[in-house]
UniProtKB/TrEMBL annotation:
SMART domains: CAP10. This is Glycosyl transferase CAP10 domain-containing protein. Residues 83-327 form the Glycosyl transferase CAP10 domain. Keywords: Transferase. One of its GO terms (molecular function) is transferase activity. It comes from Kingdonia uniflora. The lineage of its organism: Eukaryota, Viridiplantae, Streptophyta, Embryophyta, Tracheophyta. The keyword Aminoacyl-tRNA synthetase does not apply. It holds the Pfam family Glyco_transf_90. Belongs to the glycosyltransferase 90 family.
Length: 413
């Protein structure tokens, strides 16, 4: 069952990252000149004025990313009528961040929204399109998919799950980690089952054979970034399996709520197969601790229902709007969009997904955003780094001991 909130509910702790993401403009605020600089990096521009939404398109996003992102904003307007401020945002729909911190040491960066960021970029992370559905891959809106995954995982006990680590995906996306991962496909040597996802074959049958629930029969689920972040993360975390996350570079809006040793196990990309083997061996030797971490990962995603996704969007754009030092004005090239116009533009299949992710006016106000706390964010970053370092040291000690044992066997037979 998803966690619902009441009128006095405090937002989840990871909402504090909203202040962190907007910190570059907290003092100087956002000017129209910065907006125009961001336009050169954006796929589309969204302007909200008096509760109406306008979009100016600059280039076509892949698949239906733009359509479902805009649909998500329309659902936010519907969920909180009269509460969404006037604002003007530039949005890019490509995978990798582009506003690199090294280029803006002496001046303020342009504000650009996208689906992920890194610690080296200023891009502002926003919930990705798949929360409202991904028709090209037959992935349903997020609440529906979570219910299916959660139901499947509840039907399986920890002891009945396969004691191996599992990954299925596409290695041909410019991801060295995924290519290296293919070498770990050996249950006896590395305790891992690695499968290549044939997207072309799946597309030919309408992705009807692709089931996000099948992965839940494994105790350990591997997450490997693709060209950038991967939307697969939220489905991996939902299984109740222990997530094995390989040295992530990219961050989406909720992944900042991940804590190594609490709701996932960190895997080193520099010693990949051995690191996976160590995680599997440790977890099989400590099943109760491994199961708790898996459940904590699932609880994180249980707390990220579409209610909370909407609240994150609300607070992000509310805080962002406070920083704009100009009155948003509709450009002549922007077109007004509403639910009906998006549905009219969509194909029959796309309309089914859009309809399934319709929102209703909220019965209670948004959660209460925690105040800024730079020191708290920084302490959590440092704690995370230390935990990952501690795990790697533990791995290295075990690996050194194993190698010594092998050397002794060679010498003494």
């Amino acid at each position: 069952m998803r966690n619902h909130r009441n009128s006095s509910t405090m937002c989840p702790s990871f909402f504090r990252w909203i202040h962190h993401d907007l910190e570059p403009w907290a003092q100087s605020r956002i000017s129209q000149a910065q907006m125009m600089e961001a336009q050169g990096l954006a796929a589309f521009r969204v302007l909200i004025s008096e509760g109406r939404l306008y979009v100016d398109f600059y280039y076509a996003c892949t698949q239906t990313r733009a359509m479902f992102t805009i649909w998500g904003l329309l659902q936010l307007l519907k969920r909180y009528p009269g509460m969404i401020p006037d604002l003007d945002i530039m949005f890019d729909c490509m995978d990798r961040p582009t506003v690199n911190r090294s280029r803006y040491k002496w001046r303020r960066p342009p504000p650009l929204f996208r689906y992920c960021t890194t610690e080296w970029d200023f891009d502002i992370p926003f919930p990705d399109w798949s929360f409202w559905g991904w028709p090209e891959t037959n992935i349903q809106p997020w609440d529906d998919e979570f219910r299916r995954i959660d139901s499947t995982s509840r039907a399986q006990t920890w002891t009945n799950k396969s004691a191996n680590a599992y990954w299925r995906g596409n290695p041909s996306v410019g991801s060295p980690v995924r290519v290296d991962l293919l070498q770990c496909n050996d249950t006896k040597l590395w305790g891992a089952e690695i499968f290549i996802q044939n997207w072309m074959k799946e597309a030919q049958v309408g992705f009807k054979q692709l089931s996000l629930t099948d992965q839940c029969k494994y105790r350990y689920k591997i997450y490997a970034e693709g060209y950038a972040w991967s939307v697969s993360l939220k489905y991996i975390l939902s299984c109740g399996s222990l997530p094995l996350i390989i040295s992530p570079i990219y961050q989406d809006f909720f992944s900042r709520g991940l804590v190594p040793g609490e709701n996932y196990w960190p895997i080193s990309s520099s010693n990949l197969c051995q690191s996976i083997k160590f995680a599997v061996d440790w977890s099989n030797a400590n099943p109760s601790k491994a199961e708790v971490m898996g459940r904590e990962a699932q609880n994180l995603m249980r707390n990220i229902s579409m209610e909370w996704v909407s609240d994150y969007m609300y607070h992000l754009i509310l805080e962002y709007s406070k920083l704009q030092n100009f009155k948003p004005t509709r450009p002549s090239s922007a077109q007004e969009l509403c639910e009906e116009s998006v549905l009219c533009y969509a194909s029959e299949r796309e309309r089914a997904f859009l309809e399934n992710s319709r929102a209703s006016p909220a019965a209670s106000p948004p959660c209460t955003l925690p105040p800024p706390d730079h020191d708290l964010i920084e302490s959590r970053i440092q704690k995370k780094r230390k935990t990952i370092s501690d795990v790697q040291e533990m791995e290295n000690r075990v690996l050194t001991q194993v190698n010594k044992t092998k050397d002794l066997v060679k010498v003494y037979g």
